[in-house]
Amino acid sequence: MPASGPYPPELLRTARLVLRPFSIADAPALAELIAAERPRLLRNFPRTVGAIQDEATAGVYITLRETDWHLRTAFQYGLWLPGRSSRSQQCVGYISLRDMHWTPFDVPKAELGYWLAATHEGQGLMREALPVVLQAVFGAVGLEKLFARVLPENVRSSQLLLHLGFRRSGVLRREFRCGDDGTIHDIDYYDLLREEWHARSAETA
Known about the structure:
alpha+beta; Aminopeptidase
């Protein structure tokens, strides 16, 4: 059972983005985004792509993520370009924190995952969004550690993690099966400790 404790804010903002959990009303937008990005996402996010096939399954996916949030087993933010109303916001990706460890025998940690629509890559949006999420989970939630698993070929993601202060700690051998061709690959492991994040934040404040 997950431990009781603090939650991250349900609404975060950056200069260009609104970050908030998906609600059931977002099912059409999420289904449309996944459909547009499916061929590109399949390699790195096979579970998400497999789970969301249409608007109905997007609704199921969102309901499960709402339960995760309530139980503190995972937190997920949709990334939205602001509009005049919530209905006019445009979803361009998400940031997720999953596989939370909360028992008294665990180090409080989570796996970080993220992706951005191809049409919005190269604009610095993820570099803008991730720090506010990291600040929330290392601050309000009190995680001790975040880690990320990245295919070696994904140079852009690796560079982003290093920019945020993550360290490449090793290689997990034969760890990941790609969704596009079913091949099994070694994967690079990156991690970031809470004290490292706070020290870095103090230096750049």
